[in-house]
Amino acid sequence: MRSYHLDSGAGLAGLTVRDHPDPVPGAGQVVVAVRAVSLSFRELMIANGDYVLPVKPDVVPISDGAGDIVSVGPGVDSRRIGERVTATLFPSWQDGPFGVEHLPQRGGSLDGMLTERAVIDADALVPVPRHLSYEEAATLPCAAVTAWNAVTGADGLRPGQTMVTQGSGGVSLFALQFAKTLGARVIATTSSPEKALRLRGLGADEVIDYRAVPDWPARVRELTGGRGADRVIDVAGLLEQSLKAVAMAGHVACVGFVSATSPPLDARTLFASGATVRAVAVGSRAQFLAMNRAVEVNALHPVIDRVFPFDQAHDAYRHYASGKAFGKVVITV
Fold first, then answer.
1. Sorting pLDDT into bands at 50, 70 and 90, what band is 268?
2. CATH number for the domain including 271?
């Protein structure tokens, strides 16, 4: 079998493919024949050496993938062979709050999914929703679970409330889709009229082009009668702007940041907002299962920008890094 390997900080030049013997599962493990993987921003951070969590040397990269169980180890029911599955990013995080004991993560301190065969603990697997392809299912473990946690966690978004999403990356698009299934109003920000049209096509009630309207928080307040949004999904680390857009006692889900340094937050801005700022680190297996039920019941389909074959993994990384993708970038295996 073939696997890609990478040392954190080596960049794309350090992404190499090697041949290995087919793996054998241990007790409580399975071997998954990987059919597709998808890229998220963390993969760029790992390649560039900017990731905040430990990354082992010569790691098999990429946390997100989907495939079939082809063999099982002792203690795993052989009837599971043939199941279509995805795997959680934090394998030990089954439910409840996140803790340091759950820090080991796929594609970082543990080998990931950019391989033809992956050995995975059986209790870290999640069934693929029946209506999704492997390519679609591969987009779920990081971006979709993060969006689900951001939208439904900490008292959750309710029907009739207003939520703001930022841009057209995977987390933002999933958050838009989930919010609409919950009966919420969505205000999306974006950088071009073309993307604005696509966001409206996905259900966004209002779209703000932040290049044409740099003070987008003020526009959010105009669109909400001066009140502000009930929830903001902050994927850029621009917390001061998000706090200016959120309602008093509202909620800002801080999903990440798009540069090595984010602007410092003035504590006075946080206090004046009366809002809660919550850091969101993907989600538990229980949240993944709940999200999949919502995906299946509502027949949701992830937005895929482009699909690359396994031998063109470098091109997939480059396309994703260009910032031109609308939705997820997938690599088939």
1. confident
2. 3.40.50.720
